[in-house]
Amino acid sequence: MTLIADNQAAGVLRPSSAEELRDMVAAATGPLSIEGAGSKAAWTTSQQPSQRLSTGQMSSIDFFYPAEMVVQCGPGTRLADLETELAAGGHRLAFDPPDLGPLFGKPEGQSTIAGVVAANLAGSRRAFRGGPRDHLLGVQFVNGMGEAIKSGGRVMKNVSGYDLCKLMTGSWGTLGVLSQVTLKTAPLMELRRSLVVSGLDEAQHLAALIAAARSPFDPVAAAYLPADAAASLGFDTAVSLIEIEGLAPSVDYRSEQLTALLRIKLATSALSVALYDQAESAALWQAIKSVSPLVGQPASLWRLKPKASQAADLMARLRSRFAERGLKVYADWGGNLVWLASEKAINRAELEGLPVGVASQVLGDDPAPFAPLSALQSELQAGIKRAFDPHGRLNPQRLTSEF
Amino acid sequence: MIPMPTPDASVLARRAEIQTALRGLLDNPKDLIGEGLALKVYETDGLSAYRQVPLAVALPRTTQDVARILGYCHDNGIKVIARGSGTSLAGGALPTQDAVVLGLSKMNQVLDIDYDNRCARVQAGVTNINVSNAVDRDKFFYAPDPSSQLACTIAGNVAMNSGGAHCLKYGVTTNNLLGLTVVLMDGRTLTIGSEAMDGDGYDLLGLFTGSEGMLGVVTEVLVRILPKPEGARPMLVGFKSEELAGACVAEIIGQGIVPVAIEFMDKPAILACEAFAKAGYPTDAQALLIIEVEGSLLEIEAQEARIQEIAGHYDPVSIKLAESAEQAEAIWRGRKSAFGAMGQISPDYLCMDGTIPTGKLPEVLSRIKQVGEAYGFQIANIFHAGDGNLHPLILYNANAPGEIDRVEAAGEDILKVCVEVGGCITGEHGVGIEKRDAMMLMFNETDLEQQMRIKRVFDPLWLLNGAKVFPLDINPADTKGERIAA
Ligand SMILES: Cc1cc2nc3c(=O)[nH]c(=O)nc-3n(C[C@H](O)[C@H](O)[C@H](O)COP(=O)(O)OP(=O)(O)OC[C@H]3O[C@@H](n4cnc5c(N)ncnc54)[C@H](O)[C@@H]3O)c2cc1C
């Protein structure tokens, strides 16, 4: 079924205002399945049949003040529309969210901002510029009892009361239905440039990412693509990309310094560094953050979050453990994120003993897509769920089979 | 005056028994303070007009100590208040007479430094500056830098989600943490987060940060550390009016330049800080910006040139670049000692902490002036201008009868202005007892009930620092509705 057909399906609740949303949730007598554009509907545990409720209609940019670095919008605002608006004012979202729609077989450009927040989706800049959690200034939402709640606000610094923005981010709509989000924006820099590094073996590539992150030269993103993943981006060999940005003289200076640093740290004459300006690199970063190098029909796709220092070891061990599965991997977030796709399914139990950090299944049929929690964590998380949604109305079983 | 709930007489009556039991739970009996001056030290924090001598003070050395003490207090229905260095300006660490203070000062070790993964594991009682000091020789630092950083602890920073002058670029505490070890009120130990960013499940790390010591006691913190820039340099720009300074900030940010810090001072603040620190501030200016940029010398100069060009549009009275490390140090010393400087010109001051949309600065400053005039107080303003966090310092005399009530009323009026223009009541100091009632300016009861339901998940008996954040009228800490003057 295509997305368009999904959205026209009968019986989907589509509030057009925060008040309507509140009334609909308050009137609900059974489980609600909350969606923005439904672009990530496939990334979930099995769900009970439930009434669908879409905030896709609540699309509006209420204000955007570049000099104050803030934008406020309705939950159903398309990410693509928001980004266009911000760019027109010389700004962007610093966490550079990906549009994962195509990964789930949906068209591009459908993701809504509430979906990005609810799934806490950050792009390649996560390790250096933070994620949605770090840039969400304020929320309004409707909890499972149909109460309208607010937290945070529109100003940069705010410690008035508990930080419910953090709880809403990454909660997959299980605590509340967002009716408004306020985000910090960042000015677009004068110049962006990527160092495209090649001629290294895998361990050296990942060491290059760490060397950049440890340097004072302020990379905003750093990724490593083994030869097969790099091929899908048009490279004929494995590459690392390290992005920097700023005023032109500063970018010139730092690209020289970073290149020199890599030569010293890696001490190999095989090292080669090409400089790509934004025109050449934008599409590459777009692809990297959206997992395009692995889009296809993988039987499973895992998002692993190792320590950067263990990423090389992890990738090597994945290859040897799953040699027969048709594996493809690459690293983003300076080595803190490893994407793993396989033609034959890999399940969670099989990752046992590997330094995967937090492992989440993005595509596949493992019944528990999200990383398991300790007993105490689970107990507390269930308590938080009850504090927001005592009747278990909102997205039951979306996050865990326990609630 | 801000009231506190009446202490629980049955707990007060068991004072000796409770002290003996607690002493038995600690390896060194000296780690329990039960009387005298040593106990009185803990009666107040940075909001020093309020004082309550606690039942006892326990100084644990390990997470296990904390777990044993909390377990005992939980089983015996005894309230607990965690404390770092007691620099809270909101009364966050103010004890109650029926509570045990859990002081983290002996848990002050840096446990592990991991440069490849840009993080350090520290005990929660380590001071903010000592985290940076521990990694300084390897050219790293911990970014959030409250002015109190020589004294305040990471535990306090986590509890308050503290900020600092350099947060414009680097964010506040919550943006610079990776994990926590926390002991819950019932004595169970919880680990949250790890080197992996964004674990699955609800973001407890984000929830704990800024929860004002009401959800659990933090014993260890995994902080993000960052490589130090090659250099940094502040500049001073003096203006003929506050409006011009405010407009200059807007254009700098509007042009896509985000310096690491932009600090604003109005005339009374300039005069007081200059008299105190001799930093070379322009005393003929009505408003002053301290703008710090960083990078290599070449990058610093490139940014300074751009900023000077922009400042030129606003008719500055003076522009002064720091020409030496000493000058740079003096410029910051002036700013960071601003509160001390106020102490020199006035017996007492009340430091407010609202945040406003930066575009509203001129309007807000003139309304603050009106508030000062209406109550007859001088007010100096210091402002993290890039992010809108405003610190009006209301100068008063606590010994003059009635002044405390008037100064608090003036403070509340200022917070109302901040909320009216779209801001909030506290940007970095926290709610504590000071702004408990002002929470109603921002939130309704439904909002606050939602927050209180979260507190109950972690502390159903409401024993941990319960008399804070939520107005007493709706706060379970005040079940009987009988109050005393703190
Ligand atoms: C001169 C001066 C300048 C200041 N400048 C700034 C500034 O620039 N920016 C800023 O943000 N703040 C500033 N502050 C406020 C204050 O320093 C911060 O709030 C600081 O984080 C408090 O740390 P502390 O160790 O003193 O905590 P305390 O005052 O001891 O406690 C503060 C809160 O933390 C809780 N707490 C303490 N330890 C724990 C723990 N282990 N687990 C759970 N909760 C705990 C307490 O219960 C209390 O609620 C300033 C204060 C002063 C006096």
Q: What is the domain tally of chain A?
A: 3
CATH class of the largest domain in chain B: Alpha Beta
What is the helix tally of chain A? Answer: 13
Globular, elongated, flat, extended or rod-shaped: what is the shape of chain A?
globular
Q: What is the fold-level CATH name, i.e. the topology of the largest domain in chain A?
A: Uridine Diphospho-n-acetylenolpyruvylglucosamine Reductase, domain 3
Q: Spell the H/E element sequence of chain A.
A: HHEEEEHEHHHEEHEEEHEHEHEHEHEEEH
Q: Which ions and ligands are bound to the chains? A: flavin-adenine dinucleotide
User: Between the first and last Cα atoms of chain B, what is the distance in angstroms?
Assistant: 8 Å
| Structural class based on helices, strands and sheet pairing of chain B | alpha+beta
Regions with little confidence, pLDDT below 50 for 5+ residues of chain B: none
Q: Determine the oligomeric state from the structure.
A: heterodimer
